[in-house]
Specification:
- By secondary structure, the protein is mainly α.
- It has eight helices and no strands.
- The longest helix is centred in the first third of the chain and has 64 residues, at 7-70.
- It is elongated and about 95 Å long.
- The chain has two domains: 28-135; 139-216, no CATH class.
- The chain has helices at 7-70, 73-99, 106-118, 122-135, 139-153, 159-172, 178-194, 197-211.
Length: 216
Amino acid sequence: MKDRFSLKDRITLLLSILAPLLSVAASINSELKGNAEHKRTVRGQLTDILSRLISINLENAKVMRDIGQTGSLYAQQVSSILSQQNAFLLDQAMYLSTQIPTLVTTVELNTIATANANAGNLIVAEQFYRRAIDSAPSDNFLALATRSYAAFLFPQRRSEEGREQFRRSIALLKGGDNLVRLTNGVTYQMWGHHDKSGTSWFSLWLRRQRFGFTCH
């Protein structure tokens, strides 16, 4: 039997079938590109806001030092304004972090946590400290995030929890290379600053580094 469809008819039929599929594929590709561009934009905005947050917190720390030394009314007013700026930027940072949860780094989550702690938002701060710990991509980042959480706990009068977190941070890094020695050394110093019993741990750590003693 002679084929009723010519080559032209077959091509036309094939195109009519493929056209909707190609349209869907093009729409998906366009949407994916749009999402990627949106994430890059949000990523850039978050980086900028966190940088400004760090600057404001550093400036406020200097102002608070001046208040402690001089009791200046002007310094108190400046501190109040900086605190308002901190709160505004912090709200933006937390919102942006929810838009790209998989792209926010451990360090950035820790920065948001610290800014919340400085602002007195202790419940939210703890949530972000824990998120920073959970997101750590390596033992080094995990040790740093755990150390920050430990330092947060002591002012809340949760000293035993803080000690445990400092212990965990120290236990995460093994070996005698310079990075491990430096990181654990700073951790012992922070522990000693927050907890008087930590100073003895720091002394033991120094002896271990110098003479090979083991800390227990």
